[in-house]
């Protein structure tokens, strides 16, 4: 079984989708720990309620020293011996030094059809551009922000009366479908991009 660590910063809805999918059985992945960068992340209680170990490595005491923060993460992870990291709404930018230790073993979900709209405010940017399709992407994590090989995408049509909020909600529904489906394939070594339509 592949031991999966999940990193969160907030409510952890994608983490919950991953945990519930792994709990259904016939899955080559097994959750070993959920890590948050703040103790108030609501996802911690959701993980604990599902019997998954949780740890907190608060970024604030490190005063912008990302290397020291990441060293603390590495030390906290060590007892759980993860094989793979899933970033599931982890709102901290990781350095290349940390990422390179996990090359081919760290994946992320991003709310756009990459390579479009890396970074923040993706839904508003898609609306401003007049896009007819939007969606989400699961990709391998590399040192470049929201880059790396694409493992899967789910497309969502943009409706005439959409706002950033309504579009965000529909994209999030697809994130909850896409991320577990990609993880199931990834842990078996399948890197073929998966395309879902809503």
Automatic annotation (TrEMBL):
<feature type="site" description="Raises pKa of active site His">
    <location>
        <position position="146"/>
    </location>
</feature>
<comment type="similarity">
    <text>Belongs to the GART family.</text>
</comment>
<dbReference type="Pfam" id="PF00551">
    <property type="entry name" value="Formyl_trans_N"/>
</dbReference>
<dbReference type="InterPro" id="IPR036477">
    <property type="entry name" value="Formyl_transf_N_sf"/>
</dbReference>
<feature type="domain" description="Formyl transferase N-terminal">
    <location>
        <begin position="3"/>
        <end position="183"/>
    </location>
</feature>
<comment type="function">
    <text>Catalyzes the transfer of a formyl group from 10-formyltetrahydrofolate to 5-phospho-ribosyl-glycinamide (GAR), producing 5-phospho-ribosyl-N-formylglycinamide (FGAR) and tetrahydrofolate.</text>
</comment>
<dbReference type="GO" id="GO:0006189">
    <property type="term" value="P:'de novo' IMP biosynthetic process"/>
</dbReference>
<feature type="binding site">
    <location>
        <position position="66"/>
    </location>
    <ligand>
        <name>(6R)-10-formyltetrahydrofolate</name>
    </ligand>
</feature>
<keyword id="KW-0808">Transferase</keyword>
<keyword id="KW-0658">Purine biosynthesis</keyword>
<feature type="binding site">
    <location>
        <begin position="12"/>
        <end position="14"/>
    </location>
    <ligand>
        <name>N(1)-(5-phospho-beta-D-ribosyl)glycinamide</name>
    </ligand>
</feature>
<dbReference type="InterPro" id="IPR002376">
    <property type="entry name" value="Formyl_transf_N"/>
</dbReference>
<dbReference type="GO" id="GO:0005829">
    <property type="term" value="C:cytosol"/>
</dbReference>
<protein>
    <recommendedName>
        <fullName>Phosphoribosylglycinamide formyltransferase</fullName>
        <ecNumber>2.1.2.2</ecNumber>
    </recommendedName>
</protein>
<dbReference type="GO" id="GO:0004644">
    <property type="term" value="F:phosphoribosylglycinamide formyltransferase activity"/>
</dbReference>
<dbReference type="InterPro" id="IPR004607">
    <property type="entry name" value="GART"/>
</dbReference>
<dbReference type="InterPro" id="IPR001555">
    <property type="entry name" value="GART_AS"/>
</dbReference>
<comment type="pathway">
    <text>Purine metabolism; IMP biosynthesis via de novo pathway; N(2)-formyl-N(1)-(5-phospho-D-ribosyl)glycinamide from N(1)-(5-phospho-D-ribosyl)glycinamide (10-formyl THF route): step 1/1.</text>
</comment>
<feature type="binding site">
    <location>
        <position position="108"/>
    </location>
    <ligand>
        <name>(6R)-10-formyltetrahydrofolate</name>
    </ligand>
</feature>
<feature type="active site" description="Proton donor">
    <location>
        <position position="110"/>
    </location>
</feature>
């Amino acid at each position: 079984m592949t031991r999966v660590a999940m990193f969160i910063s907030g409510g952890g809805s994608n983490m919950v989708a991953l945990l519930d999918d792994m709990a259904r059985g016939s899955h080559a992945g097994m959750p070993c720990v959920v890590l948050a960068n703040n103790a108030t992340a609501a996802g911690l209680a959701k993980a604990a309620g599902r019997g998954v170990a949780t740890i907190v490595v608060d970024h604030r005491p490190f005063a912008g020293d990302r290397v020291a923060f990441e060293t603390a993460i590495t030390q906290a992870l060590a007892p759980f011996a993860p094989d793979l990291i899933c970033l599931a709404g982890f709102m901290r930018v990781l350095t290349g030094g940390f990422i390179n230790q996990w090359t081919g073993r760290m994946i992320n979900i991003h709310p756009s059809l990459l390579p479009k709209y890396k970074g923040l405010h993706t839904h508003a940017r898609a609306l401003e551009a007049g896009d007819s399709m939007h969606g989400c992407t699961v990709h391998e994590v590399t040192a470049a922000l929201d880059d790396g090989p694409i493992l899967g995408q789910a497309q969502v049509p943009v409706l005439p009366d959409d706002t950033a909020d309504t579009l965000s909600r529909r994209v999030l529904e697809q994130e909850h479908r896409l991320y577990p489906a990609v993880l199931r394939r990834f842990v078996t070594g399948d890197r073929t991009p998966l395309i879902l339509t809503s």
